[in-house]
# Entry
Amino acid sequence: MNLDYLFDAAHWDFSTGSIPQLIVSHLWYVFLALLIGLVIALPVGLYIGHTGRGSFIAINAGNAGRSLPTLGLLMLMVTLLGLGLLPVLIALTVLVIPPILTSAYAGLRTLDPGVVDAAKGVGMRPMQVLFRVELPMALPVLMSGFRSAALQVVATATVAAAVGLGGLGRLLIDGLAVNDYSRVLAGAIVVAVLAVLLDLVLALAQRWIVSPGLRASK
Amino acid sequence: MITYLSNNSETVLAALRQHITLALIPVLLGFLIALPIGYLGVRFPWLYHPLVNVAGVLYSIPSLALFVFLPVVLGTKILSPLNIVVALTIYTVALMARTVADGLRSVDRLITESATAMGYRRVRRLFDVELPVALPVILAGLRVATVSNISLVSVGALIGIGGLGQLFTRGFQLFYIEPILVGIILSVLLAGIADLIIVLIQRAVTPWTRVQGGRA
# Structure
């Protein structure tokens, strides 16, 4: 094992293809995919969890999502739409939707029904029940789904390099193409560290946004 | 798509066969390795949290990175299927060790205490009482591991061995949709069938869970 590539200062300036620049583009894909995924999956998950309608979608979304091969989806999208950011984003978004949707649903469904009844009993409207009681109480479960989505997408965004985009996958794919294992190793290490750091940041965010009243009982 | 299939049935079948082997051997190996590790996490409670954390980190390594990185560590050839098998075994162990520990921890203490009172020693109690009671949880984890292994194998195509994933790379290089579609459909079907088989096994070996479900 050699770490020359990782610790070579020349690879840490901000030029095109340098490690910091690849990290930034990698995180950009991750951020966009998570954002779009959240915008699509959260309302659907909350709706299903709140009303109980269409639960089978939420239950099966997780398994269906896991069984879709991301590489195949990515290459299908590129073949259909041509090279670019859009096909990669579609493939990555498809990956993050199931865990977010399933956890939003599960978070609402596993709440104590007594709490929801009490909220209704004190005169809250359905929207108030959802946003002031159900959603805050479901946050721990929801966040764990979001964190696993984030972990997955950080790891999978490397595949974007296989269809010519940037991101840390470049180090893996290019390193492999020219038999430069030091570069491959650098890519693997940076991605793994990035995944762990992101999870840590999200764990802190979770502590910060989850009501302290919920922490005591857990 | 039908014409593609009939013209290339041999390639597709070979890819499918490789896919099944590459996905399922790691499931078996990983399961067998995870059982004792998960047990240790229950037997020695201080091991539980380190175990969960290490498993989490292992699981966060991107599969592509692991596939290309393992030959360096193992000294195998980059095109050796062994790399894929070892990588997927690592993921399976990371996932299953925690599930096994959680499953065993979920066994009601009254059950283990009654078994002890009836004269079961630790080892026999583990195999005859605790493991069977924990099976629904453990098999649920096995379903997740199997399905995600099946979809992960195709990433191996980027380094030249990936079962159905080779259909993806071929279609991508030729800008030709048919092989990609066939690959995706077969991969999803395979995952569905494997999942179903585990569900059926679970129904057969844990009949008591169904009785309870029926009453409720």
